[in-house]
TrEMBL record:
This is YukJ. SUPFAM superfamilies: Lamin A/C globular tail domain (SSF74853). Residues 572-697 form the LTD domain. Pfam families: DUF2278. InterPro entries: DUF2278 (IPR019268), Lamin_tail_dom (IPR001322), Lamin_tail_dom_sf (IPR036415).
Amino acid sequence: MDYPYGAEHGSTKETEAPLEVDLFKYELEDMDVFEDVEVDLQVFVRLARLGLFDEASRRFERYLARHQSIFSVLVENLDMLLQASRYQDVIINIEKEEGLRRNPTTHDETDPDGQSQLLAAMKVLAKVHLDMLEEDALLAELEDCRGYLERKWPRDTREYSDAILIHLAEVYLGIVTAGLEFRLIREQYRLRYCNPPWTTEETPEWYGFCTWYKELMEIGCHWEAQRIQRMLIPKVTFDQAEKTIIQIDLQKVIKDAKETGDYDEPFVLSMLAISNNVCDYLLKEAAKSRAQLANLASDYLAISRSLKAELCQNSTLDIINRSLPVKQVDELELKLKDTKQKTAETQTRTPSAKGIARYGVWKATPVRYNVEDPHLDWVSPHLQLFVHDKGGQEALAAVDIKSENRDSRLVYLITSDFTHHITEKLAQLDPGFHVLTGTLEQKLDGLALDFIRSNLFDPTNGRILSHDIDNTGHDMLDQLRPILDRAISQKSRVYIYGSQFSDGTGIHDIHMNQGNAGRWGRENGVFQDGALIFEFVDHWEAVFIGFASQAVQTEDGPGLAGHPLQQQDFMTWADLLAPDKGVPGLEPNDSSVVITQALVNPRGSDQQPGVPKQTISLKNRTSYEVDLTGWQIRNMMGQAQRLPSNFHIGPSASMTIEVHIPISNQGGTISLLNRQGLVQHGVSYTKVEADRATVVFE
């Protein structure tokens, strides 16, 4: 179908072609109305969708205001007023119709109850934006709207035959997003309203609406889809957006429309809005910490450019260049240029992450050590640990005891009774160096270490220490010497994680190797952290070292693996453990909710009737209730179980949760992730501990 732009009553250009606009499936041609009202309404909708609100308002007042008793006329005007943020006018118009004490004139097949519900929802949306509703009143209105949608929505969500229902669900989403923005919906109710009423409570946050967006696209409701998309984009995580909003191949959708003859102005306008929305979202994500997304944004901008050219070339409207979708393309051009420039500057300051070379673990026996004189190497002195591996060959382990950064302090944690499933793997290694870089051991259940992801220790038990504070007990060397002396005298085994020297004679980088900024950013990576783990006759001990300036949370990857989650102003170990930088070793704050025990090996045959289910127990360390809605439990394999909506743990309370993902009874890790997907608390256990059925962590 060619661009069928008609115009009457003083529009900018004349054409004999009939104007066709998809009025949310309102079948005006079947209504008993004057033909000029139908055409005027189509022209009005066209102007409103182009974002030409002033022109649309003038046309409405001149030709359509006296016809607001027709429901489609009324609702399209209200919709334009909402898009133009004229919320007070929305309320005035609805209350005017309510004052007439009669339903607007409609086609016989339309639903008066649905009309009333839609008008009520639009009024609520306007009131939320004007801060005219209290929390309880808003929740009551949401429940009313939710109940109606639950009763009326078809079981097959792709059977969209009722335009009023589609519009009502869209307004419902608008109320929810506005309610969250203005903090009228508390966290405990969040998950209930962040999905359509026709989904189950177990549906992940926003996933139901994302799925609906895809279904709308599949059945050709492109304009409705882009309106849903516009509200969802600021709310969803990048992973959700990548799997739904970004996943759809717009080029294929456009090609198919051309082949089927559906390539008209409403379609082009919808595709332009969708492409613009995704491009803008990607540029915002690129500006945060995902610089590689600028290239994908550029691809979407190319689509937008093409659609803009089609729209402007074929339009009969002289003011098409003033329309919002067209102007947004020009704005995105500037944003992309600015983003690429800033990305280039950032990459100049922060080299791309390559990880450390020849990362691995060295199994050996410690024999002696010495400390470099800080007067000879005051920038980055090391403790030199000499070890013997197979055949008595001597190797050197260079342990950092001072950072080269402005904050030269170290993060230090010694575990005097180290229990972790990784010790069982270590004990089976032959003496010598074992390369882990690029192997299957560099993952969650592998032999490689990750301070953030492997649950090696409780981060809040760490301490910030300097390396050379005389006679204070806060010297880094004061903490290392006792364990080294015992290991040497008892001829224990040591497992040294780090980067092997290029000549193979030793190992360094025996510390955290992620979360670096500036020049050390090139060494960032995940599952490549260094450590000293000692195997004594009857127990294990471990030493974990990092730098006070490193980030406590990092990107999973792949592009920026190991980089701080934020490029600037990220939380460092110093921020977490010693906010007052003048007090070395200041005690940190505990995690709010922790894992206290786990039933990992119930007695009886697996999956047999009567055998208890695997469980974990949580404890709230705070004096206030914590909302766990959307939190996750993650096992050693990376599988996660999301906690349901309205899931709370009371002040200082404990609770036990049945686990539906497999928890290994051969030793492993369990992590508690918060709503943002960050590790809130993590624990580990060995096969020996698992044999006792219940593992207690505190």
